[in-house]
Amino acid sequence: MRNPRFRLLLHWIPALVGIGVILAESTATMSAENTSRWLLPFWIKLFGPISPARWEVVHHYIRKTGHFAGYGMVSLGFFDSWRVTLERHWADFGVRIRNAAGLALLSTLLLASWDEWHQSFLPNRTSSVRDVGIDFCGAVAAQLVLLAVLSLWRRRPGVRVATA
């Protein structure tokens, strides 16, 4: 691709889509009460009837797993965006990857914090520092898996990584 700005824009699209998904999910429409309305029938179709008390626990864990996995995916989008953005500043692959991972974690933490702050103003939504922690743990887990995969990939015989 000849136009570096267009290439950079393309690599920011996954992060921007992730931000858009978080924004959409940060509304009253995605409150626990509303998600239970469509998740419960889905659960019953897959696994059969469940008591209201048990459903409350299961629903809680489904939502927290969504936080963990969703913010993990968002952090991967941020990673790719920062990786390409930093190409001009750090030619060394390892340094660029570590810096991109750090910036991806920071970006994800800021987004998670903003999301919880925003929810504190919405009726039917709760704001929780614990959710920010879950979101950040999802981001850290995704980055660790990504860095492990990249490390294994780089160690394969015959793999050469361009430094610039």
Quick overview:
By secondary structure, the chain is mainly alpha-helical.
Describe the structure.
By secondary structure, the protein is mainly alpha-helical. The protein has one domain. It contains five helices and no strands. Helix 2 crosses helix 3, helix 3 crosses helix 4 and helix 3 crosses helix 5. The longest helix is centred in the middle third of the chain and has 34 residues. The protein is elongated. The model has no long low-confidence stretch (mean pLDDT 90).
**What's the gyration radius in Å?**
19 Å
| Total strand segments | 0
Number of domains: 1
Number of helices: 5
Low-pLDDT ranges: none
For the residues shown, what is the average pLDDT?
90
Proportion of residues in β-strands: under 5%
What about the largest sheet?
none
* String of helices and strands: HHHHH
Features:
164 residues; mainly alpha; elongated
Topology:
Elements lengths: L3 H22 L6 H16 L4 H34 L7 H27 L9 H27 L9
